[in-house]
Each structure stands twice: as structure tokens, then as C-alpha cells.
Amino acid sequence: MSRIAKNSIKINQDVSCKFESGNFYAKGKLGEMNLQIDPLYTVEINENEIHVNPIDQKDKENPKWGTTRSLVANIVTGVTEGFTKTLELNGTGYRASIAGSTLKLQLGFSHDIDHVIPKEIKAECPKQNIIKLSSYNKEILGATAAKIRSYRKPEPFKGKGIKYENEFIFRKEGKKK
Fold this sequence. Notes:
Layout: H1 3-6, E1 9-10, E2 16-20, E3 23-27, E4 32-36, E5 41-45, E6 49-54, H2 64-80, E7 83-90, E8 95-99, E9 102-106, E10 113-116, E11 121-127, E12 130-135, H3 138-150, E13 161-164
Antiparallel strand pairs: 1-6, 2-3, 3-4, 5-6, 7-12, 7-13, 8-9, 9-10, 11-12
């Protein structure tokens, strides 16, 4: 029995949610999203909370129940508050800048890297070595941040590369004489 799935999802007045024909729709101040719900489950919407319930009692043991509840909760949180990820560039000469919908990265290669940012994501560079990404869609935000990080992952000896803001890089000791 899932502990996560039994919990209700709290919603406030500025979110409008509906569940019809197997799809969950949520609309808030940041955007509008929908999710196709597994046919084993149904979504029950009250005035200020949402419950994800299995249709059959035997599906209470299915791990998809907790996953479905988390996906619905992420949609509700995304359209009300949104999600943010911050990336830091560590290294000499590493810098980032934004031109339109393109993120230009200088990461010590002989060429610059141009990464096209999806339209759902808002990116900004308050400093040359910090990239702030924000979106209402947690899935696209995480995939974009991971793709940007993959251009130059942090290495364990000097810590150079692109890392998440709260990420700890385990440092290794160099060669001994």
C-alpha cells in the first residue's frame, strides 16, 4: 500500500482542475497542462483537494498509484508556483549568455555551444557563470537542465564543469610524488 498515494493534493482558488474521459486538466496563472491518467485509477476533485483513487481494490498494491498521484501533484504545483533549477559554471573562461531563445555556452572548447531553449522554459543569466531555468513543466525543465549539464560535467579533480546549485562534487586527491 502506497503511503504517498493515500495523501491528498491541496489546491487553492486560482487553479481550475477537471477530470474527464481519462485525462486530468489543470489551469493556473503560469500555464495550462494535461495528463492522461492510467485507466486503473480515477481522480476525485473536491473544493480544495484532489484524491487519486484506484478503481479496483487490488490496484492499491500497484506502484503506479503513487506515481500517478505524484504526476498530478507536479502538474498542480507547476501551474501555480512553477519550478526552478540553477546551474553554475566553474572553470576559467567558462561563461554563459542568452540571445533570444538560444543559450550560448563557452566551456573551454575551440567552439561555442549554442543550445536552443524550449518555449516552455524561461532562462536567464544573472551572472556570466550562473544559469537560472524556470518552467511550469517539471519534466521538460529537468531534461533541459540535464542536457545543458551534459556538455561539460563536473570533474572530480579541480571541480571544473557545469553543476547544479546544490550539488556536491566529491573531490579526489591528485597524483603523489
